[in-house]
Design goal:
- A hairpin with a 6-residue loop joins strand 20 and strand 21.
- The chain is α/β, with parallel strands linked by helices and 461 residues long.
- The protein has 3 domains: 147 residues, 3-Layer(bba) Sandwich (FAD/NAD(P)-binding domain); 127 residues, FAD/NAD(P)-binding domain, CATH 3.50.50; 117 residues, Enolase-like, domain 1.
- The protein contains 14 helices and 26 strands.
Length: 461
Amino acid sequence: MKMARKIVIIGGGDAGTYTLEAIFKKGAEVLKQFDITLVKKDKGGSASICAVPFALQGVFPMKDVAEIDPPEMFVGHGIDYRAETEATGINVEQSTVSLSTGDELKYDYLVIGTGRKPRIPAIEGADLNGVFTMSTVEDGEKIAAAMNAQDAKNAVVLGCGTIGLQVALAFMKKGLKTTLIAGHPTPLSSSLDPDMGTIVRERLEKEGATFVTGKSVDALKGDGGTVKSVVVEGEGIPADIVVISKGMLPNADLAKDAGIKIGATGGIVTDQFLHVKKGGAYIDNVYAVGDCVEVLDAITLRPRLSQFASSALVQAKVIVNNILGVSYPLEPALSPAIAAIANLQVGSVGITAATAERCGIRVVSGKKDKPTKARFYPGRKSMAVKLLFDAYSERLIGAQIISEEMVADRIDGLCNAIRMGMTAKELSRMEKSFDPCVSLHRDVMIDATEKAVEQLTKGKA
């Protein structure tokens, strides 16, 4: 009887879990071919970290997202599932992984899915009590306890990314005076141009948020080891709770210590099959997946991070197919994103105008804001659409949409349009479905495209 091949997966977040699920979907006969061990330093099974801010907002209990799939589910599939166990070393030459328990695991295939870690700026007082990050369920539980304390009145969030905004909304719903501090003048600057980010900022200001932008934080000040204020260019802002939400870094230290190549973004370098690189060569039986991986951007063709669960899902399929001998390359990343913020759906795909400028890409954009349904239909919502086109090829290279409805499907459709190389003229001629209760005969997206077509035509006149 043929010996089962050993797969070791490091990390039990989305990346590790999706890798297991990709194997499960191949069927019981394929699963029997492998002896699989997953090690993770956190307790319990798989959790939904993206849902934690909504648990803080009271949408559902924290316990509902703390363990989506318990360890028993994986064990029932024959997986050696080792929670509260840390991988402490990788020996690529010997094909072994060392564990905090003192055990050493041999592997035929290794999958590194060590995830991400919070970016914590070098600020005085960052280690005070009452100062938190938001990257695990445990972080969410700590923040929940702090915001529910009787003496909690003032909260400050450092950063205006998706997580920071969603946590700030939780504070406001609890009645805390909430201040958001960021270097950029508008929120979500990595995915939205300023004119679109302003829409999100204005909505949050209506909810009661105060923004402090374009200024640097001097220090976090405390009393008796507990934070009491945030000092911004000499001015103190009261703070009983501070959440540092300045983005995420790849958690690639384990791979780096093993001599595996790390890229300019801090992520693990891989080829199109997600093999890692060491000593100038890619390693056929060692893969990396998820938030710790550096990918190639589909528009700029430069290295970037794509720290989304949806990216990890695709990468996991690539790895499993290649382990099974099926050539299954990873496409360069477009990273479509959607976020629910203050009853707004905020979606984006491709690059922003700022990214285009940094990369020397001249763009032409079209923007339109109009209702999504007929004027006589009750409860209709507005939708703001901004589309970016390469000024030379006229191809779509970026899209941003904000509305209270129907954003995710549109972003996914535009993601496919970018992947197919659709031009502004082609998009402007695209047929759209129509019914007055769900759409307009003259769609907002077509209007935005036609504005861009007009500019492109003038530019070549």
